[in-house]
UniProtKB/TrEMBL annotation:
SUPFAM superfamilies: Integrin alpha N-terminal domain (SSF69318). Residues 1-23 form the signal peptide. It comes from the Bacteria. This is Uncharacterized protein. InterPro entries: Integrin_alpha_N. Keywords: Signal.
Length: 669
């Protein structure tokens, strides 16, 4: 029994010791856990400090890039360092803690950032698009844009990807949607290698942790007239040839792309299957349609009893009723040249032709000139009259609708700021008193004896940069004299109808030198319709740029012209650099862009040529040339630059040409 009792005591002692040991172990574990929990905030704090240091280092790199006093090669290397560092930083969860405005401010406003949240089948997805534009003094004006996509569903799962590495596209908006093919992102913005400011759209698909660019089928896409769609790799570029600016904005399941400040445009959207589609031109405001409309002009002729009057008529205007009203005005205005001589027994002979002085979406200015001869009269008379139309209102526009016909305006005309179209008539306006001019200009734009209200045989017209006035003078002096004053020389307090004047504002100071010629000889010059476009140039306004192949020397070459609405030659471009080679093998591309950033649109051309015929012939190769626009509206080439572009191989695409030239310092004015 004692033995058993002693054994029982030993067991109790062993159990007690075990409990003490186990308790000590438990306490030891609690102590270790407490130490670990204490260390976590320190690790997070250290991580935040590391992120903050890297952020500040990136800002420092950016400031080196922006320092114009540092060597350009050093700055270029720093751009690579900055973009790579920014990419890494955007993959950090801490980066999404900063709001868009905070990040922009932190990087000295060198970034543009847009963040959106989308509710998808898999849950909420946050997407941020970041643009960085490098200094053009380092990269040139084209390859200066870097775009990043950052996305996260939770702040612990943050991803980022660079999708534009020194290219011409500037992303401004995006849409993310579910589709049958997974998560899709439609990215839109502006591309800077063409003119006028076209819009680009790309489609991206999310697979795992990477966005991949997807092809967009454009073969079934239908565009309204005047819109043009170009495909470049997997993106497509939209532009409207008749408008100098475009806008892109978020619209339902895609983008609304509109021209100028018009309320009309086209939409690019996701379909239910996740594909991209283009909807026809439509009005943003469904109740009214006041958008700008394109139109063309054709020639009509009145010919009867020795009287011939040619005049324009409008076609392809979307509003049929407005077109009918405008054409009626044009016809009646043109035929007012008949006035008292419509009777065949009067023995009158009249020949009148017209010229378009200004043609735009809002305004049309037509000038009529001709000769009127009455039987047994001592001499023929030179006729001159005009018609100005407000296209939007479908109404005539007179000088008094645009100008306050008061003494300050008369003093401006007599101050010497006007230019006589015929230099020998310069001093004739001084023969008129102020009262005479006030009366004549107040009654301007009504032909005397035409059966309308009081007329004065004084007329006005508009060009792309000037206001023209024609006043009657003695037959010995020419029957009429024309004077022009720059629009920018007319003070605001002398103007009426400020809305119309907003369109009349000239772009640049231009001289009056215009190269006029006859109609293009299509037997001598074969037109390349695919590379001929309706466009606009500063000082010229709306014109046709025509590419041709002609035989002016011993071998054929490429020749380029600007034509007016009646196909008269306004300007013949200088010799194309590619004509120095004997073979012509077609045009590859034509683009309009202000390459040297002087405010004037230039022309870039790439053509294929070969080395001749016979044993010496080689495969066709590209030759690029740039026509730089001068302030006097002419164009010039720079042979040394042309040679460098082609010798160094920067002639494969329009993008190649612009990328190279944008890094040069070119001044032709």
């Amino acid at each position: 029994m004692n033995y058993l009792k002693g054994g029982r005591i030993c067991c109790m002692l062993l159990l007690l010791i075990s409990c003490v040991v186990l308790n000590g172990c438990t306490k030891g574990n609690d102590s270790s856990k407490a130490e670990t929990n204490h260390a976590l905030p320190l690790q997070n704090e250290a991580k935040m400090i590391s992120y903050s240091k890297r952020l500040n280092a990136l800002v420092g790199t950016l400031r080196i890039i922006n320092n114009e006093n540092i060597d350009s090669e050093v700055r270029q290397k720093k751009i690579d360092e900055f973009t790579q560092g920014l990419h890494l930083l955007l993959n950090e969860p801490e980066s999404v803690e900063m709001k868009d405005g905070e990040l922009v401010e932190k990087f000295d406003n060198n970034l543009t950032i847009l963040t959106k949240s989308f509710q998808l089948k898999s849950g909420q997805l946050n997407v941020r698009v970041i643009n960085y534009r490098a200094p053009t003094t380092v990269t040139g004006t084209i390859g200066d844009k870097y775009t990043f996509i950052q996305w996260w569903s939770t702040k612990q799962l943050v991803h980022a990807q660079m999708i534009e590495d020194g290219g011409p596209e500037l992303a401004t908006d995006f849409i993310v949607r579910n589709s049958d093919h997974g998560t899709r992102l439609l990215l839109g913005g502006y591309v800077s290698i063409y003119h006028p400011n076209p819009v680009f759209v790309t489609l991206w698909g999310l697979s795992g942790q990477k966005w991949t660019e997807k092809k967009i089928a454009i073969d079934k896409m239908k565009l309204p007239d005047s819109w043009e769609l170009n495909k470049d790799v997997d993106e497509f570029i939209l532009e409207n040839r008749q408008h100098d600016s475009m806008s892109i904005e978020d619209h339902r399941d895609g983008f609304l792309i509109s021209k100028d400040n018009s309320d009309k445009g086209i939409t690019i959207e996701f379909s239910k299957s996740g594909e991209v589609r283009i909807n026809s031109e439509q009005s943003i405001n469904s109740d009214t349609d006041t958008g700008q409309q394109s139109y063309e002009l054709i020639q009509e002729k009145y010919s009867e009893n020795g009287i011939v009057i040619k005049y324009p008529q409008i076609t392809k205007l979307e509003d049929a009723e407005k077109q009918k009203s405008l054409n009626q005005i044009l016809k009646s205005e043109a035929l007012k040249g008949l006035h008292d001589y419509a009777d065949s027994n009067s023995g009158v002979h009249v020949e009148i032709d017209y010229r378009i002085k200004r043609q735009s979406e809002r305004l049309l200015s037509v000038q009529y000139t001709g000769i009127r001869y009455v039987k047994k009269a001592a001499y023929p008379n030179h006729m001159f009259y005009t018609t100005n139309l407000n296209m939007e209102q479908a109404s005539r526009l007179r000088l008094s609708d645009l100008i306050k016909i008061e003494r300050p305006f008369i003093e401006l005309l007599k101050s010497g700021k006007i230019t006589a179209v015929q230099p020998e008539q310069k001093g004739l306006i001084g023969d008129f008193t102020q009262d005479d001019l006030i009366q004549s200009l107040t009654n301007a734009d009504v032909l005397e004896g035409s059966g309308e209200e009081l007329g004065s045989n004084t007329f006005s017209y508009l060009t792309n940069d000037s206001l023209g006035i024609s006043i009657p003078v003695a037959h010995a002096a020419g029957d009429h004299a024309e004077y022009e004053i720059r629009l920018q020389q007319i003070p605001d307090d002398m103007k009426r109808n400020k809305e119309l004047w907003s369109e009349l504002s000239p772009v640049v100071e231009q001289s009056a030198s215009v190269v006029n010629g006859g109609k293009l000889d299509t037997e001598k010059f074969s037109i390349d319709e695919d590379q001929s476009f309706e466009t606009s140039f500063e000082g010229w306004g709306h014109v046709k740029f025509v590419s041709t192949v002609g035989m002016t020397e011993e071998t054929p070459g490429n020749y380029f012209f600007l034509l007016d609405g009646q196909n008269y030659i306004l300007y013949s471009f200088p010799k194309f650099y590619g004509n120095n080679w004997s073979g012509v093998d077609g045009l590859a591309a034509v683009a309009f862009k202000d390459v040297n950033k002087d405010g004037l649109k230039d022309v870039i051309i790439i053509a294929y040529v070969d080395a001749g015929a016979g044993p010496s012939i080689i495969d066709p190769f590209p030759i690029a040339d740039i026509y730089f626009q001068n302030k006097n509206k002419t164009f010039t080439t720079l042979p040394a630059l042309d040679q460098a572009i082609n010798d160094k191989g920067h002639n494969q695409t329009i993008k190649d040409v612009i990328q190279y030239v944008s890094k040069q310092r070119i001044n032709v004015n």
